[in-house]
Amino acid sequence: MKIMFIKKRKLIYLFFSIIILFLFFMLIFFINYPSSFAIELKKNSFFNIDVTTTLDDIAKSDEKKAYLTFDDGPTTKATGKILDVLKEENVKATFFVVGKHVKEHPELVKREYEEGHYIANHGYNHNNKLLYKDMESFKNEITSTDLEISKAIGVENYCSHIFRFPNRLYVSYIY
Ligand SMILES: [Zn+2]
Q1: Which of 45, 99, 113, 158 could be cross-linked to 153 through a Cys-Cys bond (beta carbons 3.0 to 4.6 Å apart)?
Q2: pTM more than 0.70
């Protein structure tokens, strides 16, 4: 009976050691992986379940589709030309706009919106130092961009719901 008891205690120690190790690795992961900020944002704020469901459905579907996205605009060099081609081909796209550029060329974002394209968020400054400075700075990069889009397209409290991390093309988050 005594031996059994010791074995059980050892098992308990082993179990807790594994838990502590797991938590330690999780901590390392969240410190090093910038998306943890986005997960935090998603928890805290205006998380929209409908957008998630829609994206989940798309991901699970067997149907083959290509989605066009354009980053870093609007710019007088490219946006107008892109919009002309999309109109000609009758294709809709998503524009991941940068807040400071929206402020410079609101008329181009308005055109994107009025021609049926989706306006998504790519941060205000496209600057990783500002984006990852702290939680407040991160939220500010997103909310100030949405605010600038709101002004440009004339829609109150516009929330683009999708944020694409600057310089990390394949990392996007829903909020
Ligand atoms: Zn970019």
Answers
A1: 113
A2: no
Question: How far apart (Å, rounded) are the C-alpha atoms in residues 81 and 77?
Answer: 8
Indicate whether 3 and 72 sit together in one domain: no
Q: Distance from the CA of 73 to the center of ligand 1, in angstroms?
A: 9
What is the distance in A from the centroid of ligand 1 to the CA of 68? 15
Identify the domain containing residue 50 by its residue range: 34-174
Ligand 1 centroid, distance to 62 Cα (angstroms)? 29
Q: What is the pLDDT of residues 84-127, one digit of tens each?
A: 999 999 999 999 999 999 999 999 999 999 999 999 999 999 99
C-alpha of residue 175 to centroid of ligand 1, in Å:
18
Task: Note whether 139 and 168 are same-domain residues.
Answer: yes
Q: Tell me, yes or no, whether 91 and 165 share the same domain.
A: yes
State whether 38 and 6 are in the same domain.
Answer: no
